[in-house]
């Protein structure tokens, strides 16, 4: 699902008349759709609860990104898209930040779903306009959908796989027809479609990279581009949706510039020196030690641990299962015993993290109970029983728990013995302190690919531990562009990846773990999972008829993924670390997703104080 925690720009959402959505269909045109239950906001709401509807407009904000970029087309597999390049567009609908999964009309005026959920129909707003003044039309919607599926990144083919047709059904009406009625999420995710201007792309090649600022329809346009260095967005003064009730209190600054930095270390020093305004801090050591500066002590820079109530992303060392040395589950399990989280957390991360164990961490979607503790009629239990003999036996035992060391940093002999036994069972043996294939004599050798130098701190100790069993693992640092290209083409052995999940998982699971995605360059199934059982479990999640069933089916998928040892779980924190120069007004109300900078505004008095004390930068 699409979220907007720290979006540089939040696209506008629109309000239509009509009844609320209920699974099974709408009673005529509706203003919103909720995956389960009813939308929080009715047809007459004036603004979201988490915004300041009277927030002042104006000012400039500078943000940052890492690496570089070479295209402003974020919808294709080619190139590295610039930050903010997708934020100049509107979608048919937009998701609220304080509900698990509810979509409200944006480009559409109303939406309608029949009782059998065989289609969804949107009526476009008559006032919706592109930045050149031309209306947003049904032709734009149809062209966008077909173009993204045919020429866009592989994600779109998986996400919209069950849409069989899209057609104009009346003035400003467009209908998406579905393969069957067993995909209740599909009407909502079709609404997430970012609509592109057909007339603009008629004279351009969509599947090519470009640094020409594209035509959009949203509250901002791209005003300036310094290739590889910065992108500047400016608010559209005559934006067609500026008076929509759900737009109130959002997109408040007039201009924002996104500057690029080589790596996070350089960016941190630039932030502390006043070069940009907001920083999400992902390095625990920095959070603990790097902010002891005069600007922080004088409260010119504020630090904020923003609480969240969403699923925590699964981050881990992922195996590329396409590689022969990782195809045996026992080998992967053995290596998972050699990552010493306890020592790493205490000595590198200041005990700031919790160990991640679930693909749906910190939510009711996570499998936590032992299989034998499940009620006899629990759907999770009944589902998994179908697959006895086709999934690891451990699935039917205790819930998965990552190994625990004493945190001393010394080799844990118990875990080393267990890992060595697993490797021997998988056909590996140690000769002259080198782990080799017992049949061929080939050494166990692979690279760990990464693009940020600070990752050394977690990779190198892990490599040292593997070396104790003769594994020849080597770090491989590359630049951001090469890293993305190699990931898109599955050209790696092991790397660290993060898999974000929503509170309402669905069609995106095909792209994460589905067999079809495993063979498509650019998909998010970079692990290379190709398992008919997991494919079936994904479809069960997608077709869950209600919230209880979704939770049970997600737990079953989670349990099978955990015991597959497709990655080595790392860590998470149950909040987001934000640092910012104290020039902003921020809404008091937080959401389950924390805060969105799109709802912030510049406070003139605070901004003046910061400007007087802040170091002057040339960038």
Give an account of the 3D structure.
With 619 residues, the chain is an alpha+beta fold. It has three domains: 19-54 and 86-201, D-Maltodextrin-Binding Protein, domain 2, CATH 3.40.190; 220-309 and 574-613, D-Maltodextrin-Binding Protein, domain 2; 314-572, Roll (Dipeptide-binding Protein, domain 3), CATH 3.10.105.10. 25% of the residues lie in helices and 20% in strands. The chain contains 18 helices and 26 strands. The strands form eight sheets. The protein has a five-stranded mixed sheet with strand order 20-19-21-15-22. Strands 1-2-5-4 form a four-stranded mixed sheet. Strand 19, helix 12 and strand 20 form a beta-alpha-beta unit. Helix 8 (329-336) packs antiparallel against helix 11, helix 10 (379-385) packs across helix 17 and helix 16 runs antiparallel to helix 17 (547-563). The model is unreliable at 1-23 (pLDDT under 50).
């Amino acid at each position: 699902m699409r979220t907007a925690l720290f979006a540089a720009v939040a696209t506008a959402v629109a309000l239509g008349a009509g009844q609320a959505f209920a699974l099974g269909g709408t009673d005529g045109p509706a203003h919103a759709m909720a995956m389960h239950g009813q939308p929080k906001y009715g047809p007459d709401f004036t603004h979201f609860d988490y915004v300041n509807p009277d927030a002042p407009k104006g000012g400039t904000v500078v943000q940052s990104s890492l690496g570089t970029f070479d295209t402003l087309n974020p919808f294709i597999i080619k190139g590295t898209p610039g930050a903010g390049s997708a934020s100049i567009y509107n979608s048919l609908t937009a998701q609220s930040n304080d509900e698990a999964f509810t979509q409200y009309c944006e480009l559409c005026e109303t939406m309608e779903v029949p009782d059998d959920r065989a289609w969804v129909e949107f009526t476009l707003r008559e006032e919706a306009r592109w930045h050149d003044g031309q209306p947003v039309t049904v032709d734009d919607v149809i062209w966008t959908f077909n173009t993204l599926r045919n020429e866009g990144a592989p994600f779109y083919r998986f996400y919209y796989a069950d849409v069989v047709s899209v057609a104009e059904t009346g003035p400003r009406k467009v209908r998406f027809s579905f393969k069957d009625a067993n995909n209740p999420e599909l009407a909502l995710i079709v609404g997430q479609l970012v609509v592109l201007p057909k007339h603009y792309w008629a004279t351009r090649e969509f599947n090519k990279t470009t640094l020409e600022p594209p035509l959009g329809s949203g509250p901002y346009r791209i005003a300036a581009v310094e290739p590889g260095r910065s992108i500047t967005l400016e608010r559209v003064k005559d934006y067609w949706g500026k008076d929509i009730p759900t737009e109130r209190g959002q997109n408040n600054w007039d201009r924002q510039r996104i500057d690029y930095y080589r790596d996070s270390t350089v960016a941190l020093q630039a932030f502390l020196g006043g070069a940009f305004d907001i920083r999400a801090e992902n390095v625990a050591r920095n959070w603990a030690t790097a902010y002891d500066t005069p600007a922080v002590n004088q409260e010119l820079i504020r630090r904020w641990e923003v609480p969240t109530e969403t699923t925590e992303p699964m981050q881990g060392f992922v195996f590329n299962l396409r590689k022969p040395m990782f195809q045996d589950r026992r080998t992967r399990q053995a290596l998972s015993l050699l990552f010493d989280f306890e020592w790493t957390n205490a000595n590198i991360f200041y005990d700031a993290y919790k160990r991640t164990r679930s693909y749906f961490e910190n939510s009711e979607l996570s499998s936590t109970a032992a299989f034998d503790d499940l009620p006899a009629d629990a759907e999770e239990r009944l589902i998994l029983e179908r697959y006895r003999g086709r999934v690891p036996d451990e699935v039917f035992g205790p819930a998965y728990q990552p190994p625990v060391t004493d945190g001393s940093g010394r080799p844990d002999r118990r875990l080393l013995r267990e890992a060595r036994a697993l490797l021997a069972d998988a056909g590996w043996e140690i000769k002259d302190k080198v782990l080799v294939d017992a049949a061929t004599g080939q050494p166990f050798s692979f690279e760990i690919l990464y693009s940020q130098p600070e990752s050394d701190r977690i990779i190198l100790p892990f490599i040292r531990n593997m070396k104790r069993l003769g594994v020849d693992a080597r770090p491989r640092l590359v630049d951001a562009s090469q890293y993305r290209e190699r990931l898109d083409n599955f050209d790696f052995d092991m790397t660290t990846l993060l898999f974000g999940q929503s509170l309402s998982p669905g069609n995106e699971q095909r792209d994460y773990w589905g067999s079809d995605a495993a063979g498509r360059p650019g998909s998010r199934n970079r692990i290379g999972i190709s398992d008919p059982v997991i494919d079936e479990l994904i479809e069960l999640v997608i077709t869950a008829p209600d919230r209880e069933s979704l939770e049970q089916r997600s737990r079953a998928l989670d349990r099978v993924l955990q015991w597959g040892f497709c990655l080595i779980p790392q860590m998470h924190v149950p909040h987001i670390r934000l640092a910012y120069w104290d020039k902003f007004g921020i809404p008091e109300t937080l959401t389950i997703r924390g805060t969105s900078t799109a709802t912030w505004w510049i406070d003139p008095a605070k901004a003046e104080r910061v400007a007087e004390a802040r170091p002057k930068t040339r960038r």
